[in-house]
Amino acid sequence: MSQTPNPTVREVNFDGLVGPTHNYSGLAHGNVASMTHEGLVANPREAALQGLEKMKSLMDAGYAQGVLPPQQRPDLGALRALGFTGSDARVLARAAEEAPQVLRAVCSASSMWTANAATVTPSVDAPDRRVHFTPANLQSSFHRYLEPATTGRVLASMFRDERFFAHHPVLPSTPAFSDEGAANHTRLAGDHGEPGVHLYVYGRQAFGGDGVEPKRFPARQTLEASQAVARQHGLEASQTVFAQQHPEAIDAGVFHNDVIAVGNGPVLLYHEYAFRDEQGTLDALRARMASPLIPVRVPVEAVSLDDAVASYLFNSQLLSNPDGTMTLVVPGECQEREAVWRCLQDHLLAGNNPIAEVVVKDVKQSMRNGGGPACLRLRVALSDEERAAVSGRVLLDDALHGELTAWVERHYRDRLAPADLADPALAHETLTALDELTRLLKLGSVYPFQL
Asked: pLDDT tens digits, residue range 227-250?
């Protein structure tokens, strides 16, 4: 399908606000960082402020920046659905005593990683010329399966003008249609306003396939889910490439494609073990893209899979600059791994590619749970007219940043251990904070307790 380029289209990064129950419960099987740091004492206030600092610094550098609110946690409704009854305090106490892992799950603050929130297709690629959204079902883990209903309400509130935005239902929450959102989706094009090609990366096939899958950790994304999302958004075969993630990468802790590859514009920065069929994936992209693909390959000799996972080099933000260069925003952990830092300096910055700058950000609170700079944002390409149609007060400016910072400092604790999750005062603090946040962001009633 041929669409006309729109010169006003610009990428907006919508970062997730870290929730007040940010903690280290080690809930994500296959996420090495999450499992390694299980039981540590977290600092929700620091985590939220680190995220806001990253948003503000990118906004100050000229990148369009938005915010997404956290989920309502603890999810007392989920506990009641599982048979816990009585007052809120009684429900929490029983859960802590009888099912502590379930309590940890309903207190998860993992919605901060909005790369998992949904898959987005910009209007320049869609047949109806609207921006399309499908919330991810996240069915592969209970603590994330709880998110899509609220995510859908939040996105529908922010992008509510039906002239510009289209919202699709969550895929069936079954293993066959396991969908982890934009963390396994990359759009490549010469420019954000140019028609693009959508790279969907999956870990396994639910129906058929040759059975080559990871052996140690689960493959979370299915081919069938990726294909269904592409159909929902009206994409044609000429606009899509479906590639299998390398099973060895998943077994090394690469639970999403955005932990081993990142793309933006015409650039695809990827590890040698990102795709099971590396050459076939590149050939398919080249055959479909209107502009030349610029692949930037990092060989395993330069960065091992272990170093890639520990540093989250590929879970960095790749941002387009007006002069055609790109900026790579990496977590501080990249400086701590000699091979990774050397690769950034000698292979990427000194290489023949558009990556001209590396910016280091401290997101340690997120990294300990297995999420780097790229996990924290959902990319939405919007034209001038579409940006003007965004509802609420969710596009970041200095005033909003200041108010959100003050809101965090008022409501967030500076210490939270897993044992604290049963505290009924925490539940009350969280509801109070979220009620104030929806007024601050002018989103209306999006949380279960507000409906």
From this structure: 999 999 999 999 999 999 999 999
Instruction: Specify the pTM.
Output: 0.96
Q: Is 289 a domain residue?
A: yes
Q: What is the pLDDT of residues 344-385, one digit of tens each?
A: 999 999 999 999 999 999 888 887 767 889 989 999 999 999
Write the burial class of residue 97 (CB in 10 Å: 0-12 exposed, 13-18 middle, 19+ buried). exposed
98 carries an active-site annotation: no
* Domain count across the chain: 1
Q: Which of 194, 224, 375, 411 is catalytic?
A: 375
- Residue 3 falls within a domain, yes or no? no
Known active-site residue 22: no
Q: Identify the domain containing residue 422 by its residue range.
A: 10-445
- CATH number for 309: 3.75.10.20
Contacts of 296 (CB under 8 A, 6+ apart): 267, 268, 269, 270, 348, 351, 353, 355
For the chain, percent of residues with pLDDT exceeding 70 = 97
The verdict on residue 5 lying in a domain is no
